Structures are given as C-alpha cells and as structure tokens.
Amino acid sequence: MFDTNLLNVLCCPESRGALKLADEACLAAVNNAIAAGSLKNVAGEKITEKMEEALVSEDGKRLYPIREGIPVLLSDEAVALPLGGV
C-alpha cells in the first residue's frame, strides 16, 4: 500500500508537477487495456501485470505504476494518458 504522505514530496519526472493517486475509473480503464493486451508503456513495452495502484501527473498526461507500495517514477515506465477517454 502506497504511503500518501509521499505525495507532498514526489513530482512527475516529466512535467515536474504534482502527482495524485489514480481513481478507480482510471485504474479500471488501464486494467481493461492490460487485459485486452493493448497497453504499452512510453518505452513501447507491453504491460501485462494488473495495476492495483498508480499515480497520475497533475496535467493528466501520464500514469506511473505503484508496485508493492513503491511508485515507479521512471519516464519510460509511464503510461501515456488518456486511454480512450480515461
């Protein structure tokens, strides 16, 4: 589980803007795309693991996975948003 107190010190590595937790609708859309086999990260690698938690950039353009409570704030690991209206 992600410690939300970290949101005060973390920022998007691309925009340098704030990050927020992805809401359930966003995670559902992302996980539907993963299940359909159509989701890739910015580096072009197919994402196969369901996301339980993620962070979204303030501008809503990028989603960063949280794995085992640790945010993965690497530009290449991000998912470009929106995904068909996410």
Structure report:
This protein has 1 helix and 5 strands, in the order βαββββ. Helix content is 14%, strand content 21%. The model has no long low-confidence stretch (mean pLDDT 93). The longest helix is centred in the middle third of the chain and has 12 residues, at 24-35. Strands 1, 2, 3, 4 and 5 form a 5-stranded antiparallel β-sheet that branches. With 86 residues, the chain is α+β, with helices and mostly antiparallel strands.
Count of alpha/pi helices = 1
Task: Please describe the biggest sheet, giving its number of strands, its sense, and whether it closes into a barrel.
Answer: 5 strands, antiparallel
Radius of gyration: 12 Å
Q: Summarize the amount of helix as a percent range.
A: 10-25%
Strand segment count:
5
Shape: globular
| Whole-number mean pLDDT | 93
Oligomeric assembly = single chain
Query: Beta fraction of the residues?
Result: 15-25%
Low-confidence parts: none
**What's the N-to-C terminus distance?**
23 Å
Give, in order, the helices and strands. EHEEEE
The class by helix and strand makeup works out as alpha+beta
